[in-house]
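User: Can you predict the 3D structure of Vacuolar protein sorting-associated protein 53? Sequence below.
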Amino acid sequence: MEGHEDDELEDLNSTIYTFPPNVQNVIEQVLPSTDPLDQPNFNVVDYINSLFPTEQSLSNIDDVVNNMELKIRNIDKEIRSVVRGQTNVGQDGRAALEDAQKVIKQLFVHIKDIKDKAEQSEEVVKEITRDIKQLDFAKRNLTASITALNHLHMLVEGVDTLKVLTQKKQYGEIVLPLQAVMEVMQHFNSYMDIPQVKQLSDEVRQIHVELAQQITADFKQAFSGQNPKYFNQLTEGCLVLSVLDPKVKKDLLTWFVGIQLQEYAHLFDENQDFAWLDKIDRRYAWIKKHLLDFESKFGAIFPQDWEISERIAVQFCHVTREDLTKLMHKRRSEIDVKLLLYAIQRTSNFESLLAKRFSGITLENLDVGNKKNTTDMTDNKVPGNPFEQNEQV
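Assistant: Sure. Here are the predicted structure tokens for Vacuolar protein sorting-associated protein 53:
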């Protein structure tokens, strides 16, 4: 160790270092010194002359040499201490590096443990989440099952109730259960492959058919004579028909409107004197009187939104147009301008009366122009019943 340090000292002593001016200035600022030996422009001769300015001063040359040797030894000690310190620093650095590597290894082990624990925690969370999803699915299935069972219970009870009420013809009490059963049946559309549900669906369909046939038969029986009966039952039956298939209601109205115009077809047959154009006002007077009688006797039977009076009037217009078309073609030789103008005037007055009385909501298969006219008729509808006014048609 000592030999190595001596070699380094010899290398330092044998080497003369010259620094650039800027480096030298920085050194002077960091390590200021007044020692001539530290000056960059050190001159040996000048320095010796400063130590021995006269010949008499040479008498103490031994003291000066001893001081210089002492300084040299002190400097050597300082240099040796610095070199030894640098050696120790290298050893300390290697030791610190080894310690740092050990710490890094330990840190890596800790990180790996944390990663493993995180993966384990993730697996646990996945298992918990999987269990929660299964429970959620089970809850949904259980809720759906309970709802389906409740609907099935309502459906079974509703079907039994409808059967009893249908047999007793208690139409007023059928409407609400019938609507409820029809609504519940919609929830079972996807369960029709189940025999029990299919059977209930068939029973509901059969109840619809029985109600339609039964109410239609009641209407035909009630209006078969001169004095219709069971008005209250028929009114309640209309409410049931409003819930059933629209075709049932349409067929019943077609039949009913037809029987209302049977008398008209007989009175104004083409072989009758009243059928010709000169008596056309008799046709309009008949329908006016017939509608007033119908509304006073039977108007309360049907719901207002069925617009029975308007349907009768519309069918009357269709029948009248067909009858007059055939009759005018058959007796075209008897038509003159005066007769034709008379018929047109009476018909125009009657059409104006119809426009005031009805909205035209029952008209079907209309083109755009006719729809616009129907809207105008609705806007021009006046309150009250113009048929009750003593106007000449």
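The first helix runs from residue 2 to 14. The CA atoms of residues 288 and 387 lie 6 Å apart.
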